[in-house]
Amino acid sequence: MEPSQHPETNLQFPKGFLIGAAASAHQVEGNNANSDWWHFEQMGKLPKSGLACDHYNRFDDDFGIAQQIGLNAMRISIEWARIEPEEGKWSAAAIEHYKKVLRSMKDHGLTRMVTLWHWTLPKWLADKGGFETNEGVEAFARYAWFVAQNLGKEVDFWVTLNEPEIYTLLGYKQAIHPPFIRSNYLTYRVMRNLIWAHRAAFKAIKTVLGDVPVGIAKNSACYQPFRKNNFLDSFIIFVFRYLDFYLLNRIHKQLDFIGLNYYFLRKIKFDWRHLYLEMKPNDPLNFSDMGWYLFPEGIYRVLLNLKKFHKPIYVTENGLADARDDRRPKFLQDTLFWINRAIEKKVDVRGYFYWSLTDNYEWHDGFGPKFGLVAIDYQNLKRTVRPSAKIFKQIFSV
Ligand code: BGC
Fold this sequence. Notes:
Blueprint: E1 18-22, H1 25-28, H2 36-42, H3 55-68, E2 73-77, H4 80-83, H5 92-107, E3 111-117, H6 123-127, H7 134-151, E4 157-162, H8 164-173, H9 184-209, E5 214-219, E6 222-225, H10 231-251, E7 257-261, E8 265-271, E9 275-279, H11 297-306, E10 313-317, H12 328-344, E11 349-355, E12 374-377, E13 382-385, H13 391-396
Parallel strand pairs: 1-2, 1-11, 2-3, 3-4, 4-5, 5-7, 6-8, 7-10, 10-11
Antiparallel strand pairs: 8-9, 12-13
Helix pairs in contact: 7-9, 8-9, 11-12
The chain binds beta-D-glucopyranose.
């Protein structure tokens, strides 16, 4: 059955299903002056984030909008560079701030999923090599412990790290994010340390808070062989999937749930010279403003692949840049249709967080891409709900 033949408002989701949006501190808060990103932005190596969406001051209004469009959950991140602006110096003001943020979420009926680290580092730690060193791992465990101790009562779900593989790839292999390095050795080392960082933070949170849900946000693409029934293409896909699950295989004992960030369809063709080539799909697919192929069905396939880990799954990110908001409505309908189908196939999916609530700072692409359910006018920071945001009430208030 194709999604278009299906009246989406009839979709049945399990009781307690979380329907939310996600965001990260550096991308929305503004003035993240003690972070490594801010530093590189001032040096002119990255677009300036400046005030971003001024979510730091406008969080209450933003959560009000989330509630108004029918969401019952939000995934935010806590900014390490604010909590520990100097090594070992913990900011009481930052803790007070995040307490207010988390209470405001609760007051707006939003279940609170909190990510401890969404790519930015305190500048002092970046200067010492960040996650290249064991010291970075230890510092992260201390930070996790401190946040659990001080904000633990206000958090419903913990996400230790956001997309460790993508961070490592962009910062240490492709050199387009800080610290702009190209090194296979460091790629391996940072990845390994992030695995340890996750385990250490998991332990710290459990030690402080006992049995609270702790997971990770993991990016997984939908890999497909470019040529059907081609052994070599299929073999490459097999290797990609193996590598894709490497992280989860290494941490599955320290994981109460899997957070899936799904964005990509990747069509792969074996190639004698380059090993593989990434191909454009033959199918007439739409794409986002960033040129990413829109393939909602892919989330179904990825979810089926994740079933073997026997963990609850939350879709912690999924979305598209669509300034005109002309592809987002169908994209959302189709994605929710395919998630629903995965649930019918007994995949334990318990929530969906759209990326993102508002337009925001899209890392090295600056403020160009518009991912938001809510548009931001960067001249005056006015928020305007986009029509596609209606879908949540249509599907979930039945
Ligand atoms: C990241 C977000 C980012 C989104 C869209 C995800 O990989 O976690 O921070 O904005 O992709 O590019």
